[in-house]
Amino acid sequence: MDGGDRILVAAGLTAAVVVGAFVLWGPGGAPKVRKRRGQIAGLQNLGRTCFLNTLLQAFAACPTFIEWLKKYAKANGHNSMITTLYTVIEVVNGTHESARGTPVCPLGVLQALRAAGWVVPADQQDAHELLHVLLSCIEEETTAMSKKPGCLSDALGLGGGRAWSALASPASPPSAPLSMRGDGVSRPARPASAAPPGEPELIDPEDAPSPVKLSKGVSRSFCHLSSVGRRWAAAPARPAPVPPTRGTLASRTHCTVCSTKSPIRYDKFDSVSLSMANASTGLTGTYSLSGLLRAFTAPELVNGLRCSKCCPEESSPAPHHTQTKHIRTVSFGKLPAVLVLQVARVEWRGGGPSKRVEHVAFPETLCMAPYAAQRAAQPEPPALPLRGAAPSAAAGDARAAYRLAAVVVHVGGPRSGHFATYRRGNGFESKRWWYTSDTLVHEVSLQEVLRCAAYLLFYERTQAPPPPLTTHF
């Protein structure tokens, strides 16, 4: 091989190396981020915003909550909490078209909070309190959706581009403290309709225009459309949808003297706080989630209540001795699709807050049937031909079965610290667990998850199996 051939071979090898380096590292000289659908991404900390990041990771592990957000998200929902949450969660889960596996900036969620009138702090805050703030914003949006009229483009699902404010660049967080909204706060402009495609909006009867009298010579088709429009405007507004975390608690009291029972009272909840103060440790000497739930639903003796039978209102004003003791019972009247349980770890001791660090054992699968309100017994329906039995008690327990989706933990003292999340993967990786702490994401085992000191537990209701069928010949 002469000198010219050697030069050609060297030039060819050099070109091959250059092309390969360009393919692997690109024009910027840095390795390309490998995009994989379903890859979980971290969240950037904008200055002590770990309490926000941990909630976003927990919600991203709940498919039921994601589907609910998707149903009511709008393509042109600028500063909409529902749309912003859905977009950020899509990017975190790697299911968004712009997902690249890099840490996501949650600035859009903070902007949506400010647009709704909330003031976000610059110091450490509680993730449980922020949970109720986010759900309150969502409820306000759904309430506004049910009251505002829609148009044809909304009913057909026509709109602009996506709400890219959820993917805005990082910025320093505001410095004002977190507080409830006061009067005079400006309200953001909301979309005209936030109903999902295929569900047309209805006009509020109070805002409905008065029917217009048609003059002679108007075509019949126009008369028909006008009558349809009047019926559409006169229809009542549909009720506001509730988030999948919404459930009800059923409570009642009965007198210890005459055994008179009060009517059942139903109270809404989005999360339930469980205390270790009245819970027993059992034979193992450790607390358990079932023990905390038993203590929460245990009968409680209440003094100073007035019985409607022992102390009728006709005898008022009644002396003090006419007040009797009552037993108060609490149970879950309606179980939510996503059950959020808080293990209350901060207590007031010695004139100041103190944090409890005891481990509370919790299962991967949870049955809430023992803590739910008992339904009234119904007569057994007659046997159907070819398809037999009625749903059994096991089917009722299956409807109260939950699977662990995410666990929020707190490291630190009662006034400061850091939040992190253990969460399931999404899609076909739902059996794998991940530890997420801001931008850090790595896989962990289920045993490590069950050993952590849980602060917030996110359980998702499993699909109830169909009732067993028997065939009669």
Give a written overview of the molecule:
The protein has 473 residues and is of the alpha+beta class. Helices cover 27% and strands 20% of the residues. The protein is built from 11 helices and 16 strands. The chain has helices spanning 3-25, 50-60, 63-72, 81-92, 107-115, 127-147, 152-155, 220-234, 289-297, 393-399, 446-450; strands at residues 247-255, 265-269, 272-275, 287-288, 300-305, 324-334, 338-344, 346-349, 352-355, 360-361, 365-367, 401-412, 417-424, 433-437, 440-444, 454-461. Strands 3, 7, 11, 12, 13, 14, 15 and 16 form an 8-stranded mixed sheet that branches. The chain has a 4-stranded antiparallel sheet with strand order 2-1-6-5, with no helix packed on it. β13 and β14 form a beta hairpin. α2 crosses α4, α3 (63-72) crosses α4 (81-92) and α4 runs antiparallel to α5 (107-115). The protein is elongated and about 115 Å long. The protein starts with a helix and ends in a 12-residue tail after the last strand.
